[in-house]
Amino acid sequence: MTKPAYKRVLLKLSGEALMGDDAYGINRATIERMVADVAEVAKLGVELAIVIGGGNIFRGVAPGAQGMDRATADYMGMLATVMNSLALADAMRQVGITARVMSAISIEQVVEPYVRPKALQYLEEDKIVIFAAGTGNPFFTTDTAAALRGSEIGAEIVLKATKVDGVYSADPNKDPTATRYSHITFDEAITKHLQVMDATAFALCRDQKLPIKVFSIIKPGALKRVILGEDEGTLVHV
Ligand SMILES: Nc1ncnc2c1ncn2[C@@H]1O[C@H](COP(=O)(O)OP(=O)(O)OP(=O)(O)O)[C@@H](O)[C@H]1O
Ligand SMILES: O=c1ccn([C@@H]2O[C@H](COP(=O)(O)O)[C@@H](O)[C@H]2O)c(=O)[nH]1
Q1: What region, left, alpha or beta, does residue 224 occupy, with left being phi > 0 and alpha being psi -120 to 50 degrees?
Q2: Is residue 53 in contact with ligand 2, taking CB distance under 6 Å?
Q3: Atom of ligand 2 nearest to the CA of 78
Q4: Which of 10, 11, 16 to mutate to test the pocket of ligand 1 (most atoms within 8 A of CB)?
Q5: Which residue(s) pair with 108 in the sheet?
Q6: Does the annotation list 135 as a binding residue?
Q7: How confident is residue 2, by pLDDT bands cut at 50, 70 and 90?
Q8: Which end of the chain is more exposed for a tag (fewer CB within 10 A), N or C?
Q9: What are the structural domains, with CATH classification, of the chain?
Q10: 14 lines ligand 2 (CB under 6 A)
Q11: DSSP secondary structure letter of residue 200
Q12: Among the bound ligands, the one closest to the CA of 166
């Protein structure tokens, strides 16, 4: 059997990618394809914790939140990630994968709260843990939540599965001349203001010496290639 390059990873799934070709929300075929990708790597024996974004539903800084109190808008964004987490766990259940959703915001009738030792126990039991509601604090993002939870659970790497296939010299969706890095240091990414992740997430991972791999969740087989340590996406390192 092919051997994974990591024992435990924190996978950050793009909320925005969940829309597929729709304008908003969760596209059924897209979530099923994401779950199929996750199922394939779970079979390899790697312990998986997941943070999912909320950009397909609400972001505190989106035009739809203009004029709103920023903290209130951010709490709405965090609730959006709870919805995505529940949808993801349910889609996993439908294909026989056991997942546990843990929320950073207390919402106990819906999901259990985040308790670190419990999360570690689930991972050791080979359950997939989905961390919902980001960090639980406004003014942050789910990328920072991925860096934070990844550090807390002792993940070997944060895998940012997004709509682009790596870190570019500029946003490739805006600048067609942008070129992709195969690897880049945290300091370079921060100094060059590369916006594929926020600077807080980069800085936390740098300080914790937790590498990040940025790759496409849309490209078939990319997640498995990353897990097997093959050349895919961009590695951000110390
Ligand atoms: N230098 C860059 N290299 C690559 N992508 C970049 C860069 N600068 C900006 N981007 C943009 O960053 C986006 C990915 O980050 P973003 O946080 O917006 O999305 P996500 O994490 O996929 O979604 P969500 O926040 O909903 O989970 C890409 O789709 C790309 O358009
Ligand atoms: O720790 C966090 C995480 C998220 N938010 C808010 O949620 C939305 C959605 O998250 P994305 O990372 O953009 O997908 C985000 O825009 C924030 O408004 C938060 O406040 N704190």
Answers
A1: alpha
A2: yes
A3: 7
A4: 16
A5: none
A6: yes
A7: confident
A8: N
A9: 8-236 (3.40.1160.10)
A10: no
A11: H
A12: 1
Amino acid 198 reads: D
Sheet of 112-113: strand order equals 112-113, 99-103, 128-132, 47-52, 8-13, 157-162, 212-216, 234-237, 183-185
141 lines ligand 2 (CB under 6 A): yes
Instruction: State whether ipTM is beyond 0.95.
Output: yes
Residue 11 marked in a binding site: no
98 annotated ligand-binding residue: no
- Mean pLDDT over the full length of the chain: 97
Give the rounded percent of residues in the chain with a pLDDT score beyond 70: 100
pLDDT band at 63 (very low <50, low <70, confident <90, very high): confident
Global confidence as pTM? 0.98
| Distance between CA atoms of residues 86 and 92, nearest Å | 10
Encode pLDDT of 117-143 as tens digits.
999 999 999 999 999 999 999 999 999
Q: Is 142 in the pocket of ligand 2 (CB under 6 A)?
A: yes
d(CA 43, CA 166): 25
Taking a C-beta distance cutoff of 8 angstroms, is the pair 234, 167 a contact? yes
Residue nearest to ligand 2 atom 21, measured at CA: 140
Residue in the block written with tokens 């505190």: 60
Nearest CA to ligand 1 atom 18: 196
The response to whether residue 191 sits with its C-beta less than 6 Å from ligand 1 reads no
Q: What is the DSSP letter of 23?
A: S
* Predicted confidence band of residue 1 (pLDDT cuts 50, 70, 90): low
